[in-house]
Design goal:
The protein is mainly alpha-helical and about 130 residues long. The protein contains 4 helices and no strands.
Length: about 130
Amino acid sequence: MTQDWLSPELDAPENGEWPDELPADVAEVGGADFAPSLPIILFSAACGVAGGVIGLYIGTVLLDLGIELSAGVATLAMLFGLGISGAVLSALSGSRAAPVNILFSCGLILLALMLLALCVLAGALAGTLLLR
């Protein structure tokens, strides 16, 4: 039986005071189910990086592709590894935050790549100044 949303039970109470506690069916759907999980984020980011490395190896060595196509295969392998591991771990833990976990894992990988690029640039600049 469905409840009409315009029914008098859902309007404001007659005395003007709202109850302090939510009904049991509303209280069960909390924000904890939608919160991201750090272990899932870290593990799926690691699976994504591992998938990228394996994809680069497969593209370069086994399929004998050029570096451009191998980088594309590595990117696809990274995305599939990250997405599948994030979705499976979120499903196993009962969390409803699979998209948030996957998004944060992608962000973590991008931050790590930016740090790597910054360190490479700083090392190249320091090497150039020391060889001068």
